[in-house]
């Protein structure tokens, strides 16, 4: 098996981060702090990034990590109490740590793309996390311009498998596996097979401003999907497609933010999880997503994730609209 060590270390780190996130949701009503771009961040986003970056920096000191968060704001004197809070939660999972350790680990995620690097979203779907809905912890390894390993932890996802909290893992060429996030047997998953009318569903974001819901509905209809969309926060949507619970995930550019560019950490782990389950991931023009040039996918617009068999049809519907 390829990337055995990478997968083992990354999976353990994501599981530990998931434990921290669920502890935060259980022990307090997480408050949103506002970042400079006005988007929310919580103590759990910071704690999750600290735990995962620590593990990666120790196991693979030469690998940069391109993470969503950095500790600049947390290091401000007026944020002392917040930093103390983050440190307490990290301690709860890992034992003795100092606030300086925590900010240093978080800032390990300030790397830039290289020949080999990781990309991390410590909490994807922070708004979902705050609402008590879906969120994901998303980590992927990119090497020589391609996704090689993806770990997608979805602590609140169920999909009717009997245990809440699912972990998806994928290694290039070796399939996608799903297991309870608390630990347990992994089983291989596959995307929706042609003819499975019941699972011919589509998923999209909860936040209307992260996509174009009316256009997404029109495209889904055009390819024969008659059921209403299932709205779900975070890359848990990729998990739903990989596990064959939905055939399509549409994320078309929001008319409100025409200049928005998708970030690699919002899609990398999900993309390899879906591809290795037999699905296809491109932008709205059918171009492969560029996970290796920069943190922002400057040359891609929108994201289309499918079971593969309906992808060409979706592209035609998009062209026509
Ligand atoms: N305008 C716009 N268009 C597209 N995407 C955007 C936009 N603004 C923000 N974001 C990113 O959306 C990430 C969350 O996406 P979701 O699919 O989980 O959305 S939702 O939570 O269901 O609403 C969210 O990731 P997190 O910050 O990790 O939560 C953002 O990176
Ligand atoms: Mg965010
Ligand atoms: Mg995100
Ligand atoms: Mg995030």
From TrEMBL:
Enzyme Commission (EC) number: 3.1.3.7
SUPFAM superfamilies: Carbohydrate phosphatase (SSF56655)
Cofactor list: Mg(2+)
Segments traversing the membrane: none
Residues annotated as binding Mg(2+): 68, 121, 123-124, 266
Gene3D superfamilies, A to Z: 3.40.190.80, Fructose-1,6-Bisphosphatase, subunit A, domain 1
Substrates-to-products reaction catalysed: adenosine 2',5'-bisphosphate + H2O = AMP + phosphate; 3'-phosphoadenylyl sulfate + H2O = adenosine 5'-phosphosulfate + phosphate; a myo-inositol phosphate + H2O = myo-inositol + phosphate; adenosine 3',5'-bisphosphate + H2O = AMP + phosphate
GO biological process, one term: phosphatidylinositol phosphate biosynthetic process
InterPro entries (UniProt xref): DPNP (IPR006239), Inositol_monoP_metal-BS (IPR020583), Inositol_monoP_superfamily (IPR051090), Inositol_monophosphatase-like (IPR000760), Inositol_monophosphatase_CS (IPR020550)
Pfam families: Inositol_P
Keyword Nucleotide-binding: no
GO molecular function term, any single one: inositol monophosphate phosphatase activity
Keywords of this entry: Hydrolase, Magnesium, Metal-binding
Top-level taxon: Bacteria
Homology family: Belongs to the inositol monophosphatase superfamily.
Family matches, as PANTHER family: 3'(2'),5'-BISPHOSPHATE NUCLEOTIDASE (PTHR43200:SF6), PHOSPHATASE (PTHR43200)
Protein name (record): 3'(2'),5'-bisphosphate nucleotidase
The species this protein was found in: Leptolyngbya iicbica LK
């Amino acid at each position: 098996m390829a990337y055995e060590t990478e997968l083992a270390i990354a999976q353990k780190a994501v599981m530990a981060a998931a434990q921290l996130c669920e502890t935060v949701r259980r022990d307090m009503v997480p408050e949103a702090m506002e970042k400079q771009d006005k988007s929310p961040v919580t103590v759990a986003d910071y704690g999750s990034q600290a735990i995962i970056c620590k593990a990666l920096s120790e196991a693979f000191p030469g690998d940069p990590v391109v993470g969503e968060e950095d500790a600049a704001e947390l290091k401000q004197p007026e944020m002392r109490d917040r930093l103390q809070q983050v440190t307490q939660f990290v301690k709860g999972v890992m034992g003795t740590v100092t606030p300086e350790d925590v900010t240093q680990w978080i800032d390990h995620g300030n790397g830039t793309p290289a020949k080999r690097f990781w990309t991390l979203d410590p909490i994807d779907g922070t708004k979902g996390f705050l609402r008590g809905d879906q969120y994901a912890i998303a980590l992927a390894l990119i090497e020589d311009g391609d996704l090689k390993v993806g770990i997608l932890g979805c602590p609140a996802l169920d999909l009717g498998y009997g245990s809440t909290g699912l972990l998806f893992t994928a290694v290039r060429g070796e399939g996608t596996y799903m297991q309870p996030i608390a630990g347990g047997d992994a089983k291989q998953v596959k995307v929706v097979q042609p003819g499975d009318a019941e699972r011919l569903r589509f998923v999209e974001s909860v936040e209307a401003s992260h996509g174009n819901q009316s256009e997404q509905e029109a495209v889904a209809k055009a390819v024969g999907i008659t059921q209403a969309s299932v709205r779900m926060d975070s890359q848990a949507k990729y998990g739903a497609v990989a596990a064959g619970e939905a055939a399509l995930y549409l994320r078309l550019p929001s008319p409100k933010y025409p200049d928005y560019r998708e970030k690699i950490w919002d899609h990398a782990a999900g993309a390899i999880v879906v591809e290795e389950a037999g699905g296809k991931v491109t932008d709205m023009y059918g171009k492969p997503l560029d996970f290796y040039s920069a943190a922002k996918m400057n040359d891609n617009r929108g994201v289309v994730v499918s079971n593969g068999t309906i992808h060409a049809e979706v592209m035609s519907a998009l062209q026509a609209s």
